[in-house]
Every structure is written in C-alpha cells, then in structure tokens.
Design a protein that fits this description.
There is one protein chain. The strands form 5 sheets. Strands 1, 2, 3, 5, 6, 10, 16, 19, 20, 21 and 23 form an 11-stranded mixed beta sheet that branches. A hairpin with a 4-residue loop joins strand 12 and strand 13. About 40% of the residues are buried. The chain contains 4 helices and 24 strands. It is an alpha+beta fold. The N and C termini lie far apart (about 85 Å). The chain is globular and about 50 Å long. The N terminus is likely disordered. About 15% of the residues lie in helices and about 35% in strands.
Length: about 350
C-alpha cells in the first residue's frame, strides 16, 4: 500500500474518532458552572443505600426521608425557655454562644416529618447558619440578627423558614409561657412549609455523609465517666456516662437537662469543638466563632480521645480527625456537639 493511501486511511479514521467524540459530548449534561459563586452548584444526590440515617448511622429511616436534606431548627436555651419542647427528639444537637454569655441550640433532623412539638424557636445567628450549611440543611428560625439576614440575602442557596417574616402560619405561640419564649412549631408544619416554598429537598452529594460511622462500637484511648464543659459562667454542661445503656446524660448547671415531659437528654456521642470566639466586628451584641480549624475532644462509650477539626467557608462540610490525622470514626447513635470557646478549654473537666 502506498504512503499516500495509508495517510488517507489514517486521516479518515481520525475524522471518525473526532466526530464520535463530539457526538458523545453532545449527549452529556451541561456542566458549565453558574457565574453566581455565592450559590454553589448542586451535585446529584447519591443513590439511596438502604434505610440508614446519615445523622445517626442507625437503620430505620423512612423511605420518604432517604437521600433528602436534613432540617435544622434554632432553639432557645435561656432559663425562660426551659424545659424545651422536643429536647430529646433531634438526631444531632449543636450548641454554642449567641451573645452575652447565653447559648442557643441547633436541632438537626434527618426526617422532620416524624418530629412533634419543637421549641421555643428563636432568632438566627450567622454562626448557626453556617453550621446548618455544613449539613446542607434547611434552616428554621424566628427572626434573626442583621448579620444572619445579610447572609441569607447574599446567598440564595441558604433555604430558610422564618416565623417572623410572613411565615408565622408555620409556627404558633404556646400560651403557657410568655413571648418571646413561647414560639414553637412541629414536624408536620415544617414539612408543609418546605413543600409550599418548593425548596430543593434532595441532599447535595458532597454533604450526604456528614459523619464517618464505625462498623463496630469503638472504645477510645482514655476512660471518661463524665465530662464537664463551660460555655460561660451561667452555661455549663456535665455529661455523665451510664454503662447500662451506653449513653451520656446531660446535666446543665448541675441539674438534669430535661424536656417538657421530664425526660432527660442523653446521647451516644459528645463532640467538643474548641473555637476561638470573639465579638463580631466589635459589636457587643454578637459573637463570631472562628470556624476555620482547631482542636477538640470526642467522648463515647465511657471513653474519650483528642481530635482536630476543619471547616472553612459557609458551605464547607465540618470534618473531624483523630490524633493521627485519619478521619474520625464515631459510634452510631445521637450526637451532641458543643462549640466551646477556646479560652475555656482549660475548664473542661474529665473524670474517669
């Protein structure tokens, strides 16, 4: 075969390959990222793998909640708000300073439709908004600080339900308490709100597995019969281990922290996050948690170990690491996560 003929055959084959490549590319979804960087592109939710609750690692999650976004509700923790309605119901409880030495909580649910009465619900703070975004959660609040509202305005992907902005129909006031400590809601009402507002409900794939659960129950390096943490002089928690059921029971300021039915809050995991807490731009009414990275403790199964953590920008997922740098494996079950000021780390007391 002549050199000229070989070249023509090669050219024809090359043209065919190029044509096929172009055809294949036309069959792909458009993967051009939007220009608005404040709203990160969402990736397709992963295929449902059974009925495992991604917040607890336990089976039994209803089919309607599988592969869906969690819901995060802001709950007050001032003396006037106690005992809270539904304290023992969330899969994950996040607590941290709001302002003036008081704390608030963020209750996370994988299946909000199963939740009963929740509250008292209170106003949004930007630190809690960023933690909800870490889980790709829909945020529920009753009012908010100007910083939180600025965050909502600048980022349309931060879906939220606000009882103080024309969405009061999804909340009610409990007349047994005085305002503002009596606003509450239910899982049924919030499910209706999410449907009415047409929020995205499929979880973003990058946030589908917020925790790395151990396949078998872990016993950590050091014994821990109880651990006391200090947010401020008026907000101290002691979690005491019960070897019978493997749970840590929450005592606040030396008294059992119970819900409105008298049931004491208890969890399988206590995660202590030490974060540098400062005033927000010298505004004495607001605080700023440094959510970049830091140290902490993981407490479970009557034991504890030191950990490190990283987060970063608003939508970045919180990541937990063991002392050796590997991703932290936690035991299945409910989790309490406290963002304790680094300045109070020396006040943490552990008893074997």
């Amino acid at each position: 075969m002549s050199h000229s003929k070989k070249f023509k055959i090669f050219a024809a084959l090359l043209a065919l390959v190029v044509a096929l490549s172009a055809f294949a590319a036309c069959g792909k979804k458009d993967d051009i990222k939007p220009d608005d960087t404040s709203t990160p592109p969402q990736t397709e939710a992963p295929a449902v793998s059974g009925d495992i609750n991604p917040l607890t690692g336990l089976s039994g999650l209803s089919e309607s909640a599988q592969g869906k976004r969690p819901v995060a509700v802001v709950v007050e923790n001032s003396p006037e708000a106690r005992p809270q309605w539904g304290l023992c119901s969330p899969d994950v409880v996040i607590e941290g300073l709001a302002e003036g030495g008081i704390t608030r909580m963020l209750w996370l649910y994988s299946d909000i439709s199963k939740a009963g009465k929740i509250g008292p619900t209170r106003s949004a703070r930007h630190n809690f908004v960023e933690m909800a975004a870490s889980f790709d959660a829909i945020y529920v609040h009753f009012g908010g600080s100007y910083v939180a509202y600025n965050l909502f305005s600048s980022d349309s992907s931060l879906n939220h339900i606000d009882g103080n902005k024309g969405e009061g129909k999804y909340f009610q006031r409990d007349k047994s308490r005085k305002a503002p400590h009596n606003a509450c809601t239910t899982g049924e009402q919030l499910s209706k709100a999410i449907s009415d507002k047409k929020f995205r409900t499929d979880i973003d794939a990058s946030h589908a597995t917020p925790f790395n659960f151990a396949s078998e129950k872990r016993t950590l390096a050091n014994p821990c019969g109880s651990v006391q943490i200090k947010f401020s002089e008026s907000y101290k928690h002691t979690f005491t281990y019960n070897s019978t059921d493997g749970l840590y029971y929450n005592n606040m300021n030396s008294k059992p922290m119970v819900d409105s039915d008298g049931k004491q809050m208890a969890v399988n995991n206590v995660i202590i996050i030490y974060s540098n807490v400062t005033l927000y731009k010298n505004d004495a009414k607001l605080v700023e948690w440094n959510l970049s990275e830091g140290k902490g403790l993981y407490v479970s199964n009557g034991t504890y170990e030191e950990i490190t953590w990283k987060k970063g920008s608003t939508h970045n997922q919180l990541k937990l690491y063991s002392a050796d740098g590997s991703e932290l494996k936690i035991n299945t079950g409910k989790t309490y996560m406290g963002f304790v000021p680094s300045s109070n780390s020396s006040a943490t007391l552990i008893n074997a």
